[in-house]
Amino acid sequence: RGFFYDRLVAYGGKGVSVRELGGGRSGEMRITRFLHNSKVTPAEMIETALARTCTQVAGRHVLAIQDTSALRVDAKGIGLSFHPVIAVDANQGTVLGLVDNIFLSRLGGERASRKERDFTEKDSHRWLDGAERASALAEAGAACVTVVEDREGDIYECFVFKPENVEKLVRAGQDRALADGTPLFSKADAWDEAGRMEVALPAAPGRKARTAELSIKFGVVEINRPASRKASDGLPKAVAVTLVIGQEINPPEGQEAATWFLLTTHRVTDIAAARRIIDFYRLRWTIEQLFRTMKTKGFDVEALSQEPDGPLENLVTAILIAAIRVMQLVSEREGTAKRLLSDVLDPDDQPVLERVCRSLEGKTAKQKNPHAPGSLAYAAWVFARLGGWTGYYGKQGPIVMLRGLTQFHAIKRGWSLRDV
């Protein structure tokens, strides 16, 4: 497994095939036997990753961020997708590790019968499965666990049946009917503004990055049980949750105002708490960066040549774990969390890192590694410089970090052969 991970990173950003990863016939056979071993399953690999994540969560407020991304899906939505859950420190934005991953295989024809099927039989049950899996973080000592989701996770059953030891935060995906007869999206029209905050909006298709000023409102609402659901399913007539609204004031001309309707099981009693809820939701972007790292500009997971009935899911799971490590390096690039190298990487890499670091450092302060040897931030600085970051401009993103990590593994291989 360690050999497989090293080879995945060594070929990061160049596509993935078992023949290339092996680096030779013996390496190819090692990886092939690993992927086809009956004891090596996605579930077993995820359990190992979750156990490592649980060692990092004690005393923290952890966000369990989950989302779905297509792997091999056609225009009709038929094919294979994957749904990871990742753990992120709510206060520092640090990526703590992987929590879970669910594969979804859609064969077509499900939509016609979806209203007749029980919730436990629907693909949408994955959102509740992710929340239940995240409860392991609370059991491991996390001070609080908040499951964070985009609109697709706005499901009535997920509010009702969520584990007691986790909270839920989701962007409202539909204008729900409320118990008092008003629609959700117009409920706050009569509410007073509680305060304002500035947020950085990242660039998106058709939108440049900008700083937006948000008007914030919040209050408790009761969402009705959908008409398509039955009381016999164990669903109450209504569920009380907190609605937090952030709406942009004076957006640039020609740009749509950023507006977030957020539903949460957290109690929000003041403007500071409302701002925290918005900040928690904004960290959902972390999982989008993970998908970017796994796909075309990173590991190119969509180009996998493995057949669906082969070890495809094992290979995707391994790439997911490797991409998480890249994200952990990105989130610790400034040393905010004071994490150790051993939290993510092999401690035996330290001598090579220090030697490479000396070759990269220049004479000015900005060309010196500001972090202590043995820290994860020290390693992140080295990888970023190897990946093309000059140390002067911008911040080191996941693609730069992956390129640098790839270069480092090539150097490491040469280092291991120095006495041959």
Return the average pLDDT rounded to an integer.
Answer: 86
How much is the radius of gyration in Å? 23 Å
Secondary-structure class? alpha+beta
The beta-strand count equals 10
Poorly predicted runs are: none
| End-to-end separation | 24 Å
Instruction: Return the string of H and E elements.
Output: HHHHEEEEHEHEEEEEHHHHHH
What is the beta-strand fraction? Answer: 15-25%
Largest sheet: 10 strands, mixed
- How many individual helices? 12
Describe the structure.
The protein has helices at 2-10, 18-22, 25-36, 42-54, 126-139, 156-160, 271-282, 285-294, 312-331, 350-360, 376-386, 398-416; strands at residues 61-66, 69-73, 79-89, 95-106, 144-149, 167-171, 195-201, 210-224, 238-248, 259-264. A hairpin with an 8-residue loop joins strand 7 (195-201) and strand 8 (210-224). The chain is globular and about 70 Å long. The protein is an alpha+beta fold and 420 residues long. Helix content is 34%, strand content 20%. The two termini are 24 Å apart. The model has no long low-confidence stretch (mean pLDDT 86). It contains 12 helices and 10 strands. Helix 1 (2-10) crosses helix 12 and helix 8 (285-294) packs across helix 9. Strands 1, 2, 3, 4, 5, 6, 7, 8, 9 and 10 form a 10-stranded mixed β-sheet that branches.
